[in-house]
Amino acid sequence: MHMRKWMKRTMLGVALLMALAALFLTGGFVLLRGTPDFYRQSALNSEQRAEAAARAESKLSQMQNLASDAQGAEIQRRLGTTTTPATAPGARTFSFTDEELNALFNKWAELHNWKDLLQRTIDDPMIVLRNGQIIFAGKVTLDAVPGVAKNTIVSIYFEPKLTADGQFDLKLVSMMGGKLPLPKDTLVSPMREKLSKYIAGALPGWQQRAEIAADGATNADAMKSALGKLLMKMFADQPGEPVLFLPLLSRGSTTVPVRLTDVTIANNTLSLTVIPLDAPQRSALLERIKAPVALQPTATVRD
């Protein structure tokens, strides 16, 4: 249940980012009417889509189990309740196809009533995995906006990767209207300024309340601090902390941090390799979470 709530918020956030981008397109850009070759309706029938969504949910449950296993091993190690040393789970790779992600997104859009909200700005949203990139695409549904053709397909391209020193670089590569490249920096700047201002205002409070317990349990404020700093770094075109936060079973908003050691996109599949952090690594992570965000000067969004 909590895993679904966590992923529901994550996927809704992505969809709302697409909707926000569509709103900023109302500033007078003339978009080319064209359909990118990747933007096609799924060939899966309803039964196959249900099976794809179920596979994705099963993998999310496995990720949740990894978090629980990591916390359980840490508790056993600290309490000495086993005759053999408790061993934390090793590295695990979780892979999702774009068909699975889209099927899951559409299922939850129906279950959680996102559809009506999204259709005010974006219709037929789609996740595409290709050429090492994650593409979020959808049709603009705004009525009679000067300079913006209704039903134009807007797509946002991200290229996630790890840098040579292991940092997570979530690069916003480009934005397209139909088949026409859009002036990315002009479109991203309003979002960057508003979100960065909000995060900068909220971050000190999050950091003050951030906690990672001895057993690895991490509170929501620590997660918000880390993800907020990562988002600010993404908008500044800089890599950030290679950490994911996996929710703990039956612990509400409590998570366990894991280190992202590999991310690949190939054959329409996103693969994430993660490994739980040990106690010294978690302590160091909390110190970095509480540190002021450090952004390099004169950073701009790449074209």
Notes on the structure:
The chain is an alpha+beta fold and 303 residues long. It has one domain (2-290). 43% of the residues lie in helices and 23% in strands. The chain has seven helices and nine strands, in the order ααβααβββββααβββα. It has helices at residues 2-24, 46-79, 98-111, 115-118, 184-209, 220-235, 279-290, and strands at residues 92-97, 122-130, 133-140, 153-162, 168-177, 180-181, 243-247, 255-266, 269-276. The strands form two sheets. The chain has a five-stranded antiparallel sheet. Strands 1-9-8-7 form a four-stranded antiparallel sheet. Strand 5 (168-177) and strand 6 form a beta hairpin. Helix 2 packs across helix 3 and helix 5 runs antiparallel to helix 6. The longest helix is centred in the N-terminal third of the chain and has 34 residues, at 46-79. It is globular and about 60 Å long. Residues 22-31, 83-87, 144-148 and 298-303 have low confidence and may be disordered.
